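We were asked to recover a plausible sequence for a given structure. The inputs and outputs are reproduced exactly as logged, with field labels preserved.

PROBLEM: sequence recovery
POSITIONS: 230
GIVEN STRUCTURE:
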């Protein structure tokens, strides 16, 4: 009985190996007489490869796939990515081309301009403030064009949801999305008349004063800090 089992196992193994060889290497029969007979006796593996290389588009796609795969594996060795750096300011923003739609009144009369993460701000020679982009929070607080009457504008800066303007008489104005939690628009009264420059950030504002100190207001709650010059 044991010898019969061994013989049966050998037959099964030999049959399995023959099938594998036939699948990938083809049969060693006589040469076919016509194309139809060739299709019948050719191995499936050879048929697939032959049909694959007949189509140029599939070859281009395969080369493109391996190029992208190898690039994603090799480039990080030369330019490693900082996985700890991330920005959630654009979370929930829909794709749009609003940043490309410069207002007509500003195209030939640009005095100041400040790019932002989701919208831009520009000032013309008549102190009109323009903004364009996709920031819904800011559009709720201002219009497309604001006629500013607080004096000549020295600088302008756009943050995530608000805009700050510094005038020639060292005063600071803020407008945009008025969120009570962050108090981005609540300019401290004691800095008015002493502002040299200001930058709008992520729900806060950094101000440089005439004495060289730096003031930060906004953020979470009532956080207001003062940094004295060295």
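RECOVERED SEQUENCE:
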């Amino acid at each position: 009985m044991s010898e019969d089992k061994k013989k049966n196992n050998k037959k099964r193994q030999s049959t399995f190996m023959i099938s594998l060889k036939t699948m990938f290497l083809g049969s060693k029969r006589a040469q076919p007489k016509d194309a139809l007979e060739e299709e019948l006796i050719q191995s499936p593996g050879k048929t697939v490869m032959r049909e694959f290389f007949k189509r140029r588009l599939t070859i281009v796609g395969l080369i493109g796939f391996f190029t992208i795969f190898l690039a994603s594996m090799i480039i990080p060795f030369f330019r490693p990515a900082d996985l700890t750096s991330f920005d959630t300011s654009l979370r929930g923003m829909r794709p749009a081309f609003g940043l490309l739609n410069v207002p007509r009144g500003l195209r030939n009369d640009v005095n100041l301009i400040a790019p932002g993460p989701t919208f831009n701000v520009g000032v013309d020679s008549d102190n009109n403030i323009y903004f364009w982009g996709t920031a819904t929070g800011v559009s709720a607080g201002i219009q497309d064009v604001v006629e500013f009457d607080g004096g000549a504008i020295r600088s302008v800066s756009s943050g995530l949801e608000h805009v700050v303007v510094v005038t020639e008489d060292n005063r600071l104005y803020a407008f945009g999305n008025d969120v009570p939690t962050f108090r981005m628009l609540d300019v401290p009264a004691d800095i008015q008349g002493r502002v040299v420059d200001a930058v709008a950030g992520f729900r806060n504002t950094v101000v440089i004063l005439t004495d060289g100190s730096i003031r930060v207001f906004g953020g979470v709650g009532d956080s207001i800090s003062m940094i004295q010059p060295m």
